[in-house]
């Protein structure tokens, strides 16, 4: 992941995270206050904090000084976070078993919302999240994809499911495998190849 300061961040499977600042490669692990071993996604929030989606440690925030475990701060248990998406004042993160968590910051007030099967997702097992050019949030799962549309006040207006019943032949999406092409078509990488 390339952040706003042009640093490159690399999540690993077993040894924490690395950052290259243009001059040197820095390893963040327990010795530097980063206790997660497995990092599945990296992003940056609206205040230039770096966010790490981990396996077992939840969401971790780095404010360029120290690391904060967001799950512990909000007393939530997300487990494995595979994907992080953000807007100007929101952070969405997809988990392997709890659906999607949404952190909203408005006028110095932070709220936490949950979106899962009870709200209309086809699964709580989220592999990817991304915004398309029309402002819809797409999430990929092991059962297909969901499109979340928003009202003018940014509340969820609708959730549309695209599964094998709707012709989504790839069934299971791959982690963070998506693309919106120049014509506005949405492509998903799946276990059965690419699906448009």
- Average pLDDT rating: 93
What is the number of E strands? 18
Largest sheet: 4 strands, antiparallel
Placed side by side, the strands forming the largest sheet appear as 4-5-6-7
Give a written overview of the molecule.
The protein is mainly β. Helix content is 3%, strand content 49%. The strands form five sheets. It has a four-stranded antiparallel sheet. The chain has a four-stranded antiparallel sheet with strand order 8-9-10-11, with no helix packed on it. Strands 12-13-14-15 form a four-stranded antiparallel sheet, with no helix packed on it. The mean pLDDT is 93.
Quick overview:
The protein has about 200 residues and is an all-beta fold.
What is the fold's blueprint, element by element?
Layout: E1 8-11, E2 17-20, E3 25-28, E4 39-44, E5 50-54, E6 59-62, E7 67-69, H1 70-74, E8 81-86, E9 90-95, E10 100-106, E11 109-115, E12 126-131, E13 137-141, E14 144-150, E15 156-162, E16 173-180, E17 186-190, E18 193-195
Antiparallel strand pairs: 1-2, 2-3, 4-5, 5-6, 6-7, 8-9, 9-10, 10-11, 12-13, 13-14, 14-15, 16-17, 17-18
Provide key terms for this protein.
196 residues, mainly beta, 18 strands, 3% helix, globular
């Amino acid at each position: 992941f390339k952040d706003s300061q042009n640093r490159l961040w690399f999540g690993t499977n077993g040894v924490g995270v690395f950052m290259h600042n243009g001059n040197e490669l820095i390893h963040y692990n327990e010795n530097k206050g980063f206790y997660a071993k497995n990092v599945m996604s990296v992003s940056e929030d609206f205040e230039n904090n770096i966010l790490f989606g981990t396996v077992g440690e939840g969401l971790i925030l780095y404010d360029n000084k120290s690391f904060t475990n967001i799950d512990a701060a909000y007393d939530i248990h997300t487990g494995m976070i595979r994907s992080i998406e953000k807007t100007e004042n929101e952070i969405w993160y997809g988990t392997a078993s709890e659906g999607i968590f949404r952190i909203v910051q408005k006028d110095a007030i932070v709220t936490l919302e949950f979106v899962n099967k009870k709200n209309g997702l086809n699964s709580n097992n989220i592999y990817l999240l991304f915004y398309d050019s029309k402002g819809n949030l797409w999430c990929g799962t092991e059962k297909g994809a969901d499109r979340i549309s928003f009202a003018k006040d940014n509340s969820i207006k609708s959730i549309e499911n695209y599964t094998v019943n709707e012709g989504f032949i790839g069934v299971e999406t791959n982690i963070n495998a998506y693309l919106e092409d120049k014509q506005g078509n949405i492509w998903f990488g799946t276990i059965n190849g690419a699906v448009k």
